[in-house]
Design a protein that fits this description.
The protein has 12 helices and 18 strands. By secondary structure, it is α+β, with helices and mostly antiparallel strands. The chain is globular. About 0% of the residues have low confidence.
Length: about 425
């Protein structure tokens, strides 16, 4: 059986993706190859007139496009919605590839991106869709199905002047919306958790997009898409790759390959290697301080153009160890091993500086950045907690504040103390 999809970067036809009896291939379109600003989709898919065909075990084409799809429960829900098995990756891309991370759009052969529209999304309707999770996806099938990577349930929206809209067709979304986790008894107050840690990252000097929270009354977290350029409503899509795509890895390798050597490989491909190494170092240390044990290779992305590769703003930052058993939370694994440390309670200042050395960051610079974070994170967290305390009351506020105090006490205070000694 042979199946084909046309691949676009924003509105430009890039090439054709083909599945021939479960062997995938990709071929660039001659018009794309002739462009002055042409760039490969990824380093593993170089610009060439030849067809790029996967092997039996090394599958750069399939891995690249598979990385566009959601993961875990979100992939299962997508598969149920389109009545396909999760194993039919090409079929899932065919059903949901019209909107993915970055600029890539996948459409049936011969179809071109159609002009889209916006439909107002009121709180009552969105609340009803959230209550229908995990049985039904958040985005309406007739408007947009998304292939955004990640394990959490997400929705593509336009968020303008505090109003929500649902886009259809080729109209680009401006924000990604995340509701409360579908198992709130285990993963409580995740919208406020991610909002808090992202705001904290910004206050500590990390590059992050704008974020917001709305109450329907259910809380929803909103993050501005950094893979867009221009002003609403005339935005264009930007091409980005996550760490797995850039390193030619299957999405299933996002944890096992989240090592200092892989992080160094990512930085070494960028236009400004030293700046990127330092940004990745600060990202990793910040994650350790706030107790984020889920910052893997798909949580780093890069803008790609014909002449440069640049680290994008950070995203998906939240404290995960607060969801572990109290008393055992620091025995959780770090996102990346640092020095000799694998778990949070093993991490020392010497391990952090050894990690920096492996990234080829000068000892003095690494120590200076570490000390700045050790000072800034608890200080800014306390100020941010006060801001949340001063917000208007709502039904979940008391629980959110308890959760934020856990981040400050169980994660930040403990980790800062460990790394100061």
């Amino acid at each position: 059986m042979s199946r084909t999809l046309d691949v676009f970067v924003d509105t430009e036809l890039v090439g054709k993706l083909t599945d021939q009896n479960n062997i995938w291939s990709f071929q660039y379109h001659p018009d794309w190859l002739a462009r002055k600003q042409a760039h490969p989709l990824s380093p593993a898919l170089p610009l060439t007139a030849d067809k790029l065909t996967d092997g039996a075990s090394i599958r750069p084409v399939q891995w690249f496009f598979d990385n566009l799809l959601p993961e875990e429960a979100a992939r299962e829900l997508l598969a149920q919605a389109v009545k396909l098995p999760q194993s039919d990756v090409f079929g899932l891309l065919e059903a949901a590839g019209a909107e993915s991370a970055g600029a890539i759009t996948l459409l049936p052969q011969g179809q071109t991106p159609a002009a889209g529209s916006l439909e107002p999304l009121n709180a009552e309707e969105l609340s009803a869709r959230i209550r229908a999770l995990p049985k039904t996806p958040l985005n309406r099938a007739e408007r947009k199905r998304m292939s955004l990577a990640g394990a959490q349930h997400k929705m593509l929206v336009v968020y303008h002047d505090k109003q929500l809209f649902e886009p259809s067709g080729f109209f680009p979304s401006t924000h990604i919306l995340k509701p409360e986790h579908t198992s709130p008894e285990l993963y409580f107050h995740t919208p406020r958790n991610e909002w808090f840690v992202m705001k904290l990252a910004a206050a500590c000097g990390l590059n992050v997009p704008e974020v917001d929270i709305q109450y329907l009354p259910e809380p929803v977290y909103l993050i501005e898409r950094f893979d867009r350029t221009g002003q609403y409503p005339n935005q264009q899509r930007l091409h980005v790759l996550d760490g797995c795509q850039l390193l030619n890895l299957a999405h299933t390798m996002k944890y096992s390959n989240s090592t200092v050597n892989r992080l160094k490989q990512l930085a070494d491909q960028t236009r400004k290697v030293g700046i990127t190494r330092l940004a990745i170092f600060k990202w990793a240390v910040f994650n350790a301080l706030v107790g984020n044990g889920d910052a893997h290779l798909k949580n780093l992305s890069f803008f790609i153009s014909s002449d440069k590769m640049v680290l994008t703003p950070h995203y998906d930052l939240l404290s995960t160890i607060i969801y572990a058993d109290i008393g055992k939370h620091l025995s959780e694994n770090l996102s990346q091993p640092m020095g000799n440390a694998i778990t949070f309670d093993e991490l020392t200042q010497a391990d952090v500086l050894a990690f920096a050395s492996e990234l080829n960051i000068a000892p003095g610079l690494a120590n200076r950045e570490l000390q700045q974070l050790l000072t800034a994170v608890p200080k800014q967290a306390a100020e941010l907690l006060q801001q949340v305390q001063s917000l208007p009351p709502h039904p979940g506020k008391a629980g959110e504040l308890r959760m934020l105090r856990q981040i400050c006490r169980l994660a930040i205070a403990d980790m800062v103390q460990r790394l100061q000694s």
